[in-house]
Structures are given as C-alpha cells and as structure tokens.
Amino acid sequence: MSLPPSRRRPFRPRCAVPALALAVGAGTLTACGGVGEPAPQGDPVKVALGTASGTGAVQAGDRLRVTAKGGVLTEVTVTDPRGQRLPGGLGNGGTVWTSRAKAAPDTKYSIVARTKNAQGGVGAAKESLTTAKAARLNTLTLGPGSPDTAVGARRSLALTFDFPVTDRAAVERRLSVTSDRRTTGSWHWGKDRSGRDRVDWRPAQQWKAGTNVTLRAALDGVYSGGGRYFADDYDLNFTIGRSCTDSDIGRDCGKVQVSDPVEVTAPSERGEDNRTTGIGDWHDG
Fold this sequence. Notes:
The chain is mostly beta strands. It has three domains: 27-130, Immunoglobulin-like (Sandwich), CATH 2.60.40; 140-241, Immunoglobulin-like (Sandwich); 242-285, no CATH class. It has one helix at 168-172; strands at residues 27-32, 46-51, 64-69, 71-79, 88-91, 96-99, 108-117, 122-130, 140-143, 150-151, 157-161, 175-179, 185-191, 197-203, 212-217, 223-225, 228-229, 234-240, 256-257, 263-264, 276-278, 281-282. The protein has an eight-stranded antiparallel sheet, with no helix packed on it. Strands 9-11-14-13 form a four-stranded antiparallel sheet, with no helix packed on it. Strands 10-18-15-12 form a four-stranded mixed sheet, with no helix packed on it. A hairpin with a 5-residue loop joins strand 13 (185-191) and strand 14 (197-203).
C-alpha cells in the first residue's frame, strides 16, 4: 500500500534585524525581501553602516555613511523619532550614501536602505542606531519667565542662551510662536546686559489683550556651535494682560483669577498687588 505524497510548505527565510549599541561602529545591515515576494536574483547586496570620518563609533556631530558591496544603493532613508529625515545623497556610482546633516546626540535613527545587485535583484536593509550623548551642552532661559502668567501688550519674547550660539540658523528653524489671534512677528538676535546671546520675537503690532500665546523651542539635539548641543525642548504658554484703568495709565496689569476670595495668580509689571477685584483691573483702595 503506497502512502500519498506529503505536502511541504516552501521555505521562506526570516529576516533578523540586529540591534546596535549606544556607540555604533561600522556593521552589516540585514537585507531581506517582504513576505510573499519571489526569491531575489543573484547574491544579496551587503550593506554596511558607519561614519563619514571612518571612526569606529557614531558620535554627536558625525555624518552617517551607508555603503553597499555587490550592488548599488537605490534609496536610503534615515529618520529620527520625530519622523524628520536626515538629509543625504548618493555617490561613488550609487555604492555610498552620506548624510549632509550631522547626527544629533542621544538620538535613535532608523535606517532603510534599498538595493539592487548586478543581476537586477532588489532588496532592502533595515537597521537602527542610537548616537552617544553630547559631552557639552547649551541651555537657555525663556522670557517671560513663568508659565501661565500675564505679559504686557508691548512685551517681546526672549530666549537667552547660557553659551554663545554660532549656528543661529539651525536654532531659529526650531523656534515658533503661535497665538489664537494669528499675531505676526519676527526674530531679532542680539546680546543681553551680561553679554550673552539672546534672540527676541517681536510682534509686528501691539499684542491684543487676552491673546493666548505659545512659545516653543524644539531644540533637543540641535547643534548651537562651539561643540555644544541642546538636550531639551522648551515650551511656554501665557496670556496678554489688559491695560490698567487707574492713574498709572499705559502700564500693564497682571492676570488675575476671579475666585472666592479673589486671588492674584501672577505679579504684574508694576509689582505685586493683592488689592485686585477683576481680571487685569487694579483697585486703588
């Protein structure tokens, strides 16, 4: 009695993606095709990851380099956790991709490299790496200095840096001011009284009372110059106060929360005053 022939599933190799350590040297990325795709024609392209300088570890400020052996790179995509791409370009006949921008510190990058071998077979290599933390940092102070406070109608917004900012364009690209009344304005660089670098955002017209404003500095990982990086994002939300109605006309009052009993929730530009009866209105006694 003969047994019916057994049915066997076709073998499909699994793609294992190795994890890179905090400081990463040049290594081989794993290439594989998608599920259900035909087997690649010819030998797979070997893809390696390193730095443009050829150093053994990926540090903050390095430029990433992806190389191909046994074929060419057709596309390389490198993204950070925000989904922003690290720009770069192909060279040496498509066998090398080098980033044009420097890698940020303490940042995990995801790399996808698409390849083509001499026989026309296509493939893809995927990898991720986390760069080392920066040894030198820059920090800043926001003005106005406290969240949820009231700001005068003529007040500019200020960021004062603890160390010099030489790459001002890179910093300014990550700064934004938004409001619920679509106020326009522009950034102006200068120095504070102590000589530290400072950038002010000045509204094109006087703020309107009651405007809610958000100042955001998404600077985590941004290079400020002098070998220093930012390691944080900064956010500040505040409200433009109303003008005083007492004899000191032209000055701006603090934002007051109406409650029982009435409480002052922020000092004004004139100083603290607990004799307050309404939002933005000061009582003389």
